[in-house]
Specification:
By secondary structure, the protein is an alpha+beta fold. The chain has 4 helices and 13 strands. It folds into 3 domains: 96 residues, Ribosomal Protein L25, Chain P, CATH 2.40.240.10; 81 residues, Ribosomal protein L25, C-terminal domain (RNA Polymerase Alpha Subunit, Chain A, domain 2), CATH 2.170.120.20; 45 residues.
């Protein structure tokens, strides 16, 4: 797992107004927690944080926080939570958890499908990625950046389950082993064109016959009208 150093400063003020002022200067408000409590308020550069989030480790990166203005200024932390602007996707606030490199922790690691399945390439199937992350427990230094799953040998109907994924020694998977990670589904069934044309042609044919029958009935009525009028006149 990649380790990086991030410089930060002690943050004295709190509240929405101060947080807004900091963000306007390119500074992100943050908190550091230890054992889920005892928050230390800090602030750090938005650009520096963004650069760290773009490393291979992503949000699972191990960070050495160097905090100016506090005693014991270096803390080993991982990102607990990031609050983002829903529209601009800009980081608004960060919570860090202080950790020990000798104690295990739980994290979510992304799952990456590797290769093109035989069932897609040769059989026209569809690869569906169902589970995108694995929850694991291990030492901070053993956290993998990603988990690759080789799907190239999968045929239509084949699946990869959590139990099929091999992990390095010391890494424990916490998900249900029977959960499906990826599956190759059969190709979608298409309606035959000839059947569509036949169904489409049925209705116009019935309408045409009905119109012809109505026309014949109208002609017969026209022929009978003079005859009925003559018979009525003779009766008078």
């Amino acid at each position: 797992m990649e380790k990086v150093i991030l410089k930060a400063d002690k943050r004295d003020g709190t509240g929405k107004k101060i947080a807004k002022q900091l963000r306007s200067k390119g500074v992100i408000p943050a908190n550091v927690y230890k054992n889920g409590k005892g928050a230390q308020s800090i602030q750090l550069g938005e650009v520096e944080l963004t650069n760290i989030l773009h490393t291979k480790a992503g949000e699972n990166v191990i960070i050495t926080l160097s905090i100016a203005g506090v005693k014991d200024n270096e803390r080993t932390v991982v990102i607990k939570e990031i609050q983002r602007d829903a529209i601009k996707d800009r980081v608004l606030h960060v919570d860090f958890n202080e950790i020990s490199l000798t104690e295990e922790l739980r994290v979510d690691v992304p799952i990456i499908a590797k290769g093109e399945p035989v069932g897609v390439k040769a059989e026209g199937g569809i690869l569906e990625h169902i589970l995108w992350e694995l929850e694991i427990e291990c030492l901070p230094t053993a956290i993998p950046e990603k988990i690759e799953v080789d799907v190239s040998a999968l045929k239509v109907g084949d699946s990869v389950f959590v139990k099929d994924i091999s992990m390095a020694a010391g890494v424990k998977v916490l998900n249900d082993p029977e959960l499906t990670v990826v599956i190759v589904k059969p190709p979608k069934v298409e309606v035959v064109a000839a059947e569509v044309e036949e169904e489409a042609g049925t209705e116009p044919e019935l309408i045409r016959k009905k119109k012809e029958e109505e026309a014949e009935e109208g002609a017969e009525a026209a022929k009978e009208a003079p005859k009925e009028a003559k018979e009525a006149k003779e009766k008078k």
